[in-house]
Amino acid sequence: MPTDRPIIVVGCPRSGTTMLQLMLHAHPRIAIPPETRFVLAAFREYKQFGDLRVPDNRRALARRIVDQRETRFCDLGLDADEMVEHIAAGPGTLGSVLATIFQRYAARFSKPRWGDKRPAYLHNVDILLRLFPDAQFINIVRDGRDCVASLKEMSWYRKDLYAMAAGWARAVDDARRAKRKLGPTQWYELRYEDLVADPHARLAELCAYLGEEFHPAMAEPSAVAEVAVPSFKTWHARTHAPVTTQRVQSWQSRLTREEIGLCEAVLGSRLVAQGYELSGGIRPARSELLRYGWTATPQRFDPARRSISRVASQLRRDEDLAYVPVEQAPAAVLHRQAAPAAVESESRVDAAQ
Questions:
Q1: How far apart are CA 222 and CA 52, in angstroms?
Q2: What is the C-alpha separation between 14 and 142, in angstroms, rounded?
Q3: What's the average model confidence in pLDDT over 181-190?
């Protein structure tokens, strides 16, 4: 039976998440937008807008999302004013506010199913589950050395080889925890190398997990790149070309001998666990590792993640944040709009403080 469960694509940066986004967007029933920046930000800030059962509070939050350029709402091709009114008229939960945007994006392409893609979601799976409890996650994994080699070439990434390697290690560790927690009905993992080597077979398996029929157009993601990848993202230029294995193991020529040794010293056990062979190169001296800030369990946390974690830890487990699935929306809207006047008044006071 067809489903409308949200699809969340995660993975370490430069592991193929954008290619996978396009493959899914090429499916006739699925729409995955360009990478946005409003989901985690809204989760971090939503309390300042008061009780979201109140339409005016939802309207204020919606305006914050659609008017801020850093949210990347502007990349979705949707009318901001119309979106604000759709959200104000919808169900009164944070998940529903966010889902409404993705639903309208899917409707732009006449598709019933929606999703989202962002590498940072891999480190915030618990938050995504609070918002979209029935979401299906897809984690794409790529050789950590290739991820590091690719990150080195990005103008927007910090030029710290250890930080790049530590980011891949953190991605592997967080994915392992999420996989244990969610199980096979909500977590699916595939390797970049397998996907580019045989797109039809791997995508057919992925579609089985999603409960969808495989469509051959998925294996030609470049056909939808003009629509689903903003032109300013020049670092995604390869998404406009056919799927190829050309970049598999390109770390062998893109990293120096010393960089390969550092990556394998820091990531060795994780690389092997993911099925990648080590080169057997010379391990850096301990003094060299210490110069990069190496520890036995490399991990770095950014302030934004700590801030979100604090918000998550303060939430009551019974607080209703979850989106309302499409088939439940009409009744849910009526129920939530019937909030007592006293609640609405109290919420306005909260929002003003």
A1: 39
A2: 8
A3: 96
Q: Which of 7, 11, 12, 10 is nearest to 25 (CA)?
A: 7
Residue bearing tokens 């729409």: 31
| Residue 280 three-state SS | coil
| Segment 198-218, tens digit of pLDDT | 999 999 999 999 999 999 999
CA-closest candidate to residue 185, choices 133, 118, 141: 133
Listed residue (84, 239, 257, 263) closest to 168, CA to CA: 263
Q: How far apart are CA 156 and CA 133, in angstroms?
A: 33
Render the burial of 135-145: b for 16+ CB within 10 Å, e for the rest.
bbbbbbbbbbb
* CB neighbourhood size of 307 (10 A): 13
Look at the chain and count its residues.
353
Residue 217: C-alpha distances to residues 16, 115, 140 (Å): 18, 18, 20
* Pair of tokens at residue 286: 């301990």
Closest CA to 18 of 27, 9, 28: 9
Angstrom distance (rounded) from CA 231 to CA 204: 29
For 38-51, the pLDDT digits (tens) are 999 999 999 999 99
Q: Roughly how many angstroms between the first and final C-alpha of the chain, as a whole number? A: 47
**CA distances, 120 to each of 58, 94, 104, 167, 168 (Å):** 25, 19, 23, 11, 12
Residue 117 vs residues 25, 138, 186, 251: alpha-carbon distances, Å = 11, 9, 15, 25
- β-strands 7-10, 113-117: how paired? parallel
pLDDT at 244: 83
Rounded Cα–Cα distance for residues 287 and 297 (Å): 17
Phi, psi of 190 (to 5 degrees): -140, 155
